[in-house]
Specification:
It contains 7 helices and 64 strands. By secondary structure, it is mostly beta strands. A 6-stranded mixed sheet has the order 18-17-22-21-20-19, with no helix packed on it. Strands 5-6-7-8 form a 4-stranded antiparallel sheet, with no helix packed on it. The protein starts with about 20 loop residues before the first strand and ends with a strand.
Length: about 900
């Protein structure tokens, strides 16, 4: 993928590699249309996270239990230390951001989506608060947040306050949120949270069940299975939850597949527990519903949406590869006799479910107080199957004219339903006695006012679908009509004081409109729609791929956060706010220790850029500073995020890993290959699909005659037991001779990725090194003192259980201290005497890498798999970090 200013790059399950369309702009910048690279990102993300035949959800639940135990241990240590009045430093984590993160990386608003925080997947307005100020939002892996002043109480969005609600729960993956109607006290609201994201992204994390709170989010109970005990919820997600307004104790939940639950083989047999669940006691317990076609039960599959139509007195649901169903009691569901779009039983058989049935994802909207309902759906190839209207409870359907969506005016992309399996939403807002404002969310947000003058959106002006956001349009300042992030996942609203208050959840976080009637009226780039970003005061939900730190200034940090670009801060000690220096997809980063204004970022595949202005860098500087591309490295393709490091003994040199190791000047010249192809042993070009793509690099030891590090370690990828050919440690103690040896030995029986490597700089030979291995049920940290000929399990002597999923260690050569990072977000420091202590951070941090040391301060860099959001820094024995779960 070329460097770009676009955000919201996503992957979809098992689709072919998509073309990345790029539009060239002025000043050397580009804007990229939303296109996905599913296979590469799928492999990059999933390697090391799978064990065939075992439930990944159960593994994660086990890890959660260990995490809670460790928290208790830490609390006990702190109490002991306080009681003893000791001066022992106990690690305390504090957030340093990014919260918020500025989206524009150009410095002049060329693609400005306002403040962003990360992917929000669900939003619900509490009906008990008639002012529309009490709002709950959920992050893909950012937990649940609540605000009681998100609406008219805060005319200035900077005054909106948010509180996290489920940080101590077993999972932070959120797919849906619903608030029970019929209550008038928002402090006693019943909140249901369907855990697990179902947006068909490769980083959509599964859930563990349904969280229920009877006190507006203060306390929670996790329901992990149905009342019969035969349908466990772990491994799935919940796309929507709908209460009956006639009987608020009756609630229905739509259960669907979550990508990771699919990939790891958790659902066996496949799809058995997907479908529709109902509760007659407000969500305290759940039962599996009966769904049938003319009396015959259908093969279970993902329910992608559910809604309650109060006037019709029925629930309606969309079920993948089957069609549309209704129920008056939530228990028994039957196929609609008339299907929108004419889905036939021939194309959509009862059993087995057929991928030829052209419904993959469907979304509903109903106008409150009317028997007026809408449905929008796409097929497996994300082709638009139309937006349909019914005014008689689903007996008949009329197709709307959605040509304004298909031809949205953004010539660089973003029109139609190109990502409909990932982002698709509807909301129907009553406008007066008979008119309806229908909002359609895809990559953009669209609006059509349906009235007697334009009953099917075939009119003009507001009587057709207007593109309210133009996320990839309105050049040269893309998205300037609204400043709203692309990729819409959910929207909710409330009519208060004759104003339509709307909230939008998307890949950038949460946005609002205080009055959709008067403030969202134009699709013309010369106009303005009145959206507000509410992310300025929301905690970080961004996922870091890497970060790098200035060698002498603790305040300066540069990171890579996938589709939210490459953010940076020069005030980490005093502010959690970060700015963006390069656009998405942000991968690995580096800061030159000998010239700290020389910054490096990377996008996907082989695309390393350089800027020499430090904190004053912008996207156009990096785009003009592309120093390493596929051509530079002999036509090789690398991993989705290709790793690279600066030679620690010659900072003017880059080391790049594809399926081979390359070395060249930071100017992009003089690149030569240092190793054979780790996949084949030959000298063939890397295609990017190899199992043994380089995942981690380390260099050091004695310099060669040219002043370069002559000892190197390269850790390769691996598919674990799924394809036991990867996860090797390759070592060369004389790179100039091109002699590399596979030194894996017996340290990686699971064939998981070698996610990190570090050479101990106190050993001038470079033969003392550490590697970290991903996966489950394996020893995670290994040490060698002879260049990999022999390895010692570093976990056991250090006293740290190998159930802690260490991914890498860093080394403080001055004080003989070692830093190990585990996937649950703990940083462990082992002192020279073998004593190990640790401090908790957030969820599942990994790939921790010590970059620089001075005066005993370990400045930690996260390189590799970061299942966390926010930055973690260990300095002078005190750890600082954000305890926000990662977004997936």
């Amino acid at each position: 993928m070329s460097p770009a200013l676009a955000f919201g790059i996503r992957i979809f399950l098992l689709l072919p590699l998509a073309f990345s369309g790029v539009l060239a702009l002025a000043q050397g910048t580009t804007v990229e249309t939303d296109r996905d690279q599913p296979r590469q990102r799928e492999q990059w993300f999933m390697h090391g996270r799978l064990i065939p035949g075992e439930s990944a959800a159960a593994l994660r639940y086990r890890a959660h239990g260990q995490k809670m135990q460790l928290r208790a241990e830490q609390a006990a240590r702190m109490n002991t230390a306080i009681t003893a009045a000791t001066t022992t430093t106990i690690g305390i984590w504090t957030p340093i951001g990014p919260a918020p993160l500025a989206s524009d990386a150009t410095g002049f608003g060329q693609q400005d989506y306002g403040w962003v925080s990360g992917r929000a997947t669900a939003v619900a307005v509490d009906p008990a608060d008639a002012t529309g100020n009490t709002v709950y939002i959920g992050g893909a892996y950012g937990g649940v947040w609540k605000s009681t002043n998100a609406g008219p109480l805060s005319a200035n969005p900077a005054n909106v306050s948010w509180s996290p609600l489920i940080d101590n729960q077993a999972t932070l993956a959120v797919g849906s949120i619903a608030v029970q109607p019929g209550n008038t006290d928002p402090t006693n609201s019943v909140i249901l949270v369907g855990t697990g994201e179902t947006n068909s992204s490769m980083d959509s994390y599964y859930g563990l069940g349904i969280l229920r709170s009877a006190d507006a989010g203060n306390t929670w109970t996790l329901i992990t299975q149905d009342s019969s005990g035969t349908h466990p919820f772990a491994g799935m997600g919940f796309s929507k939850i709908a209460f009956s307004t006639a009987n608020p104790s009756l609630v229905v939940a739509a259960a669907a597949g979550a990508s990771q639950g699919v990939i790891d083989g958790l659902e066996s047999p496949v799809n058995t527990n997907r479908g529709i669940y109902y509760s007659n006691n407000g969500g305290l317990s759940w039962s599996y519903a009966n769904v049938s076609d003319v009396g015959t039960a259908i093969q279970p599959n993902s329910a992608t949406s559910v809604i309650y139509n109060a006037v019709a007195g029925k629930f309606f649901a969309a079920i993948r590869f089957h069609g549309f169903y209704s129920s008056s009691d939530g228990v028994n569901w039957t196929r609609l006799a008339t299907q929108p779009g004419g889905l036939s039983t021939f194309a959509c058989p009862t059993s087995p479910a057929s991928q030829g049935c052209p419904i993959y994802r469907g979304e509903f909207a109903v106008v409150p107080g009317r028997n007026e309902m809408y449905m929008w759906y796409v097929d497996e190839n994300e082709n638009d199957q139309g937006i349909w209207q019914t005014t008689d409870g689903g007996n008949t359907w009329t197709q709307l004219d959605d040509s304004g969506i298909t031809n949205c005016g953004d010539f660089s992309g973003g029109c139609g339903t190109a990502q409909g399996s990932y982002n698709l939403e509807l909301a129907a807002v009553p406008n007066g006695l008979t008119a309806t404002d229908l909002y359609a969310g895809a990559i953009n947000i669209y609006k059509c006012t349906i009235s007697s003058l334009s009953p099917v959106c075939g009119g003009t002006g507001q009587g057709t679908f207007l593109n309210l956001t133009h996320v990839y349009g309105c050049a040269p300042n893309f998205g300037s009509i609204a400043h709203v992030h692309p990729d819409q996942h959910d929207l909710d609203f409330m009519i208060a004081n004759s104003k339509a208050i709307l909230y939008f959840a998307n890949d950038g976080g949460i946005y609002r409109a205080l009055d959709g009637y008067s403030g969202l009226t134009t699709g013309d780039c010369s106009g303005t729609n009145q959206f507000d970003s509410l992310n300025q005061t929301l905690g970080s939900m961004s996922q870091f791929v890497s970060f790098s730190q200035h060698p002498s200034d603790l305040n300066t940090i540069l990171g890579g956060t996938q589709d939210n670009g490459s953010p940076a801060t020069t005030s980490a000690a005093t502010s959690t706010s970060w700015f963006n220096v390069n656009s998405g997809d942000g991968g690995y980063t580096a800061i030159n220790p000998d010239n700290p204004t020389e910054w490096f970022t990377a996008n996907t595949n082989v695309s390393i850029q350089k800027c020499e202005f430090g904190g004053n860098c912008h996207a156009q500087d990096f785009n003009n500073g592309l120093v390493v591309s596929n051509v530079t490295v002999g036509g090789d393709s690398g991993a989705f995020y290709t790793p690279y490091i600066l030679d620690p003994q010659n900072s003017g040199t880059l080391l790049v890993g594809t399926c081979r190791v390359w070395r060249g000047a930071t100017s992009g010249t003089g690149f030569s290959v240092l190793s054979n192809n780790f996949e084949t042993g030959g000298d063939g070009i890397c295609g990017g699909n190899e199992v043994n793509l380089v995942r981690s690099l380390a260099a050091g030891g004695i310099k060669d005659t040219s002043g370069f590090s002559n000892v190197m370690y390269a850790g390769t990828d691996g598919l674990g037991p799924l394809q036991p050919t990867g996860g090797h440690v390759w070592v060369s103690t004389n790179v100039d001779s091109a002699a590399w040896f596979d030194r894996t030995g017996a340290i990686n029986p699971g064939k998981f990725p070698i996610s990190g490597a570090a050479i101990d700089p106190s050993d001038k030979t470079g033969k003392t090194a550490y590697v970290a291995i991903m996966g489950f049920h394996v020893a995670h940290v290994w040490k060698t003192s002879n260049g990999g000929v022999n390895w010692t399990n570093y976990c056991e002597p250090a006293g740290c259980s190998c159930k802690r999923y260490f991914d890498c260690c860093g080394i403080d050569s001055k004080h003989r201290n070692y830093l190990c990072g585990d996937r649950r977000g703990r940083v462990f420091k082992q002192h020279g005497n073998g004593e190990l202590d640790g401090s908790r951070s957030g969820e599942r941090a990994s790939g921790i890498f010590a970059e620089y040391f001075r005066d005993g301060a370990a400045h930690v860099q996260f390189r590799g798999e970061q299942d966390f959001a926010g930055v973690y820094l260990w300095t002078r024995g005190v750890a600082a970090g954000a305890n926000r779960g990662a977004r997936f």
